[in-house]
């Protein structure tokens, strides 16, 4: 007789969601988390699209420690001397079905883990699951230090670099083309200053993504999110891109923070935290084997993350995949069969959900983002040059379109057209 029905490795969003859903259905569940507390090792930009958790815990944002509800979106293209921003705010973003929230994982993850504990799970931290426990080829639990803990099923929610998934033969070692590295700083500012500088009311938040100089012309981009009384500012860059350059991520982040568009927004702020983490960015083509007898992969361990340049999503997929894995394990418990025959139902559930549908819809996006180098230098410069022509007045006026269009064509109309076509098929 196993100690537990299910052991979940990792108390991030995917693991705690899976644990919560299984415990609510009456299964005995153990969660093992290597951090001092759930969330203490976790990094996100971050904005949580709330729809997936809203379906599991309706009205969660009323009691969860979210920072601000995002009502303002900005996308910017930066060059050395210019910044072109699209700024969009809408009351529509307040609807709970599509609302998104800035979050700090060190606060949010413990809240979700506490909901799982309330539902009846045992959560142990800090404890590292070092290996899978086997009886012959069958996985029968996990080994954590000296402890051997047994279960009918193990859910690996241990993040992008899941060593246990590799040990289970479900996942290859990560390649530099499949992952980006993200780093961020958290800058403390009075709530009123944040409201004033970003044009927000109490409780309202802003999300801003940047292309161009923040990544030093390499594949990647910057982000800025407003929290209650802090601002998160950071960069996400592909590992493959960084390997081709002498540029260092911390130097690029410093230059971004000190750049003309950002510096005044953070002026007088106090740097309170620095964090860095890998991000799975390979999309559909990096998804590993998701199930085998007695084992399932969820969240980042399964590669469920999509960076489309205008949205970055991983947390909502982590939560949704945790829920779908839990439903599958609940079915396996009812049938008394934890073999791959039943657990592979998880893949069908994912295929019928937005998780794998989105990965398929945007299967070309990672390639587009990695190979369309013009996005990171030429296009921001093109936009800056065209807009400088439009707005700069230094004497007699001229016919703007006649002046600007040839510059755009000089930049390569064929390249623009092809990139536009590829973008429309990928994003
Ligand atoms: C810089 C950055 C910006 C991002 N921005 C966004 C954003 O704005 N919006 C968004 O939706 N997504 C964003 N993402 C992606 C998002 O953060 C992830 O997709 C999400 O955190 C995945 O959740 P998870 O629970 O699967 O994994 P994780 O959050 O990585 O949790 C894994 C957990 O497993 C634990 N663990 C690992 N190994 C073991 C072990 N052997 N034993 C015990 N415990 C273990 C870890 O300590 C951790 O708690 C961003 C990511 C980064 C790095």
How would you characterize this protein structure?
- The protein has helices spanning 13-24, 51-56, 60-63, 105-118, 163-167, 191-198, 239-243, 249-257, 263-266, 315-335, 340-343, 345-352, 354-361, 365-371, 378-391, 400-410, 413-426; strands spanning 4-9, 29-32, 47-49, 68-78, 83-89, 100-102, 122-124, 131-135, 138-144, 147-156, 179-188, 204-212, 220-226, 230-238, 270-280, 291-292, 295-297, 306-307, 312-313.
- It has 427 residues and is α+β, with helices and mostly antiparallel strands.
- It has three domains: 4-67 and 103-173 and 285-361, FAD/NAD(P)-binding domain; 179-280, Alpha-Beta Plaits; 368-426.
- The strands form three sheets. Strands 3, 4, 5, 6, 11, 12, 13, 14 and 15 form a nine-stranded mixed β-sheet that branches. Strands 1, 2, 7, 8, 9, 10, 16 and 17 form an eight-stranded mixed β-sheet that branches.
- Strand 12 (204-212) and strand 13 form a beta hairpin.
- It starts with a strand and ends with a helix.
- The mean pLDDT is 92.
- The chain binds flavin-adenine dinucleotide.
- Flavin-adenine dinucleotide binds at residues 9-15, 32-35, 41-48, 128-129, 157-159, 182, 184, 234, 236, 277, 279, 299-300, 305, 312-316, 318.
């Amino acid at each position: 007789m196993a100690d537990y029905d299910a052991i979940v490795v990792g108390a991030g969003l995917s693991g705690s969601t899976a644990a919560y859903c299984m415990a609510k259905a009456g299964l005995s569940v153990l969660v093992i988390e290597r951090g001092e507390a759930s969330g203490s090792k976790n990094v996100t930009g971050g904005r949580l699209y709330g729809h997936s958790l809203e379906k599991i815990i309706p009205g969660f944002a009323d009691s969860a420690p979210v920072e601000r509800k995002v009502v303002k979106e900005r996308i910017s293209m930066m060059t050395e001397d210019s910044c072109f921003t699209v700024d969009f705010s809408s009351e529509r973003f307040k609807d709970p079905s599509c609302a998104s929230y800035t979050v700090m994982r060190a606060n949010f993850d413990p809240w979700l883990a506490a909901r799982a504990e309330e539902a009846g799970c045992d959560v142990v931290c800090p404890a590292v699951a070092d290996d899978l426990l086997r009886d012959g080829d069958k996985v029968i639990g996990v080994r954590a230090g000296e402890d051997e803990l047994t279960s009918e099923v193990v859910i690996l929610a241990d993040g992008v670099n899941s060593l246990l998934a590799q040990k289970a033969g479900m996942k290859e070692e990560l390649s530099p083309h499949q992952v980006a590295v993200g780093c961020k700083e958290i800058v403390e500012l009075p709530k009123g200053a944040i409201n004033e500088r970003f044009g927000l009311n109490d409780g309202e938040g802003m999300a801003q993504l940047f292309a161009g100089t923040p990544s030093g012309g390499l594949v990647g981009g910057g982000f800025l999110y407003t929290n209650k009384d802090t601002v998160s500012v950071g960069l996400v860059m592909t590992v493959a891109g960084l390997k081709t350059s002498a540029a260092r991520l911390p130097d690029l982040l410093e230059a971004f923070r000190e750049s003309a568009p950002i510096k005044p927004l953070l002026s007088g702020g106090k740097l309170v935290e620095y964090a860095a983490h890998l991000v799975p960015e390979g999309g559909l083509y990096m998804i590993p084997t998701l199930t085998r007898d007695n084992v399932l992969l969820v969240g980042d361990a399964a590669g469920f993350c999509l960076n489309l340049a205008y949205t970055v999503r991983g947390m909502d997929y982590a939560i949704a995949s945790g829920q779908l894995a839990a439903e599958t394990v609940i079915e396996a418990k009812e049938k008394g069969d934890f073999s791959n025959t039943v657990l592979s139902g998880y893949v069908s559930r994912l295929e019928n959900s937005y998780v794998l549908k989105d990965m398929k819809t945007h299967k070309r996006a990672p390639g587009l983002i990695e190979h369309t180098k013009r996005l990171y230098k030429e296009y921001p410069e093109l936009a800056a040059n065209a807009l400088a022509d439009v707005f700069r007045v230094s004497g007699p006026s001229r016919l703007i379109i006649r002046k600007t269009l040839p510059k755009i064509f000089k930049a390569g109309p064929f390249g623009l057209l092809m990139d536009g076509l590829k973008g429309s098929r990928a994003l």
